[in-house]
User: What shape does this take?
Amino acid sequence: MKNRTNEYEAVPAGYEKEDNILTKYGEWARDRRKWARCSSAEGNYKARWAETKECPPELIADFRAIEVQRTILQLPEHYRMAIQIWYVPAKSPFSARLRANKLTKRKLLEYRNEALKLFRELYTIDETSRTPCTRLVA
Assistant: This one.
């Protein structure tokens, strides 16, 4: 998850699962499992997790990401925009994305917090009882 530098940027209490799901969704939406690797002139670059025996970053399964995406599409437009800016990494700097959408950071965080609340109502988090086809059948 992202490092939260002040208490205003922190995720509201009780919404950590939603934040975690949206963070994983953002990584999935950014690269779709195409790992970008840096290279060195000598060819000696190794991924950080290869040297430290860490696991590579965990990505959300494709069917779960599509369910998250469908849930996000049910949100009002300004909340969708807030989730897109906050959770999906992009090439343009964060401040440039805020300026392009005529937002302040405080307003973005207000929208993000409200979007988390609506997201919780629309998306069920129970990982054990759901299968990829549950929503299609019901």
Q: What stands out?
A: Residues 128-138 have pLDDT under 50 and may be disordered. The chain has one domain: 16-33+47-137. The CA atoms of residues 73 and 130 lie 20 Å apart.
